[in-house]
Amino acid sequence: MEINRSRDVIVLYKDMAFPVEVDPAMVAAGWAGGQGVTWTDSPDDEFRVTFSDGTWGGFMLAGSNESADQLIAYTGNQPKYQFGVMCAGTALISTISFERYTLESRTAGPLVENTWVVGSKVRLSLRGLFTPQDEWTIAADPRAPNEFYAGSIVQPPRPNNNNYVMIQTAM
Amino acid sequence: MPFPPPVNSFEIDFGGMDLIRSRNCTVFFKGETHMVVPDAAMLAGGWEGGQGVRWVASTTDEFTVTYSDGLWGGFLLWGSDESADRFTSMTRNQIVYDTAVMMAGGAMISTSTYERYTYASRLGGPLVPLVYVASESLFLSSRGLWTNEDEMTLSGHALAPALVAGFVAQVPKPINQFYLGIQTVL
User: Fold this and answer.
1) Number of domains composing chain A
2) Contact state of B167 with A55 under an 8 Å Cβ cutoff
3) Which of A12, A13, B54, B127 has a CA between 20 and 30 Å from the CA of residue B160?
C-alpha cells in the first residue's frame, strides 16, 4: 500500500462512528484527530465528551482544525457547532495522536521516547493520547492500574510511515 | 447563541437532538443483533427493552437466553409488551412465537431499564437511589438491569466479579426523561 496520510488519523477499517457534543474545554483548546475522549455530563439531552484521562468512550475522527480542512466548508466547523464524530469499537487506524515520550520524561525530562512493540496493548494517556504505558500506575493515580485497554499496536511509528502509529482499537 | 437566532441571522441553531423516547430502549448505533429464544421464565415474566440476558442450556437446537444475573450474552432490543407495540403486528409477537432479538457488542443506547436503587437497599431497605456518573463502568445487576454496582461481588456470586458491560454516556435527568445513556461493550 501507499497510504496518503494527509490527516491526523487515517481509518483503514472503521467501526462505530457517532456524533457527539464536545465540552467547552475541548472547544477552547481544540484537538487533533485520534484524540481519545471520555463521557462527561451535559446540561442538555446530548452525548457530550471531553478529553480522556485514561478512560474512554472512543477517539475523535477528525481534528478541530486540521490543515486538510483549511479553506473549505469544514474549516472550524466542529468547534463552531460544538460537535465531532467519535469512533469506537474495533477499527484499524494510523494516527499521529500518540505519546512520543514516556510520562516520567515528559514530567521531569530529559525526554525519552516510548517503545512501541507490535502486538502489545495500548491505553489512553492522562491527556487522552494513545500510549504503551499505564500512566495511572506511573502517576500513582488511585484508579490504577488502568485496565481500560484501547487497542493493540499494529505498526510502530517510523520514517516510512510518516511516523504515524498504526493501532487496532478495542474500545 | 441566543434562541431563537436573531432576525436576518444566517446562524444555524444547532440545538442538538430532539429524541423521541417512545420505547424502553432507543438505539443510536447498533451492535451485533441475533435472534434468540427466551426461556420459560422469561415468557412467564415478560421483559423490558434493554433487559440483560445470559445464555442458558436448552434441549432444542436453539440459542436460548434467560434473565441475566450479572453474566451476559447481550440485551434484548424490545420489551415483550411495550406500549409502543400496542395495536400493531408486534403486539405480544415475541411472547407468542418465543423469539426475541438480542443485541451485543458496541452499541449506543438510551434506556429506562436500569437499577434506580442500590443492591443493599433493595434487599434490606430503605431504598437508596443510585447516582450515575458519566464515563463510569456499568454492569448487569442480579436481575439483568443496567447498574453501576458489581452485584455479583455484592451477592457473593460464584463467578464474581462481574464483567464490565458498558459505560455511562449520559446520566438520567429530567431533560432526557430519566433514561440512561450507555455505550455498551458486551
Assistant:
1) 1
2) yes
3) B127
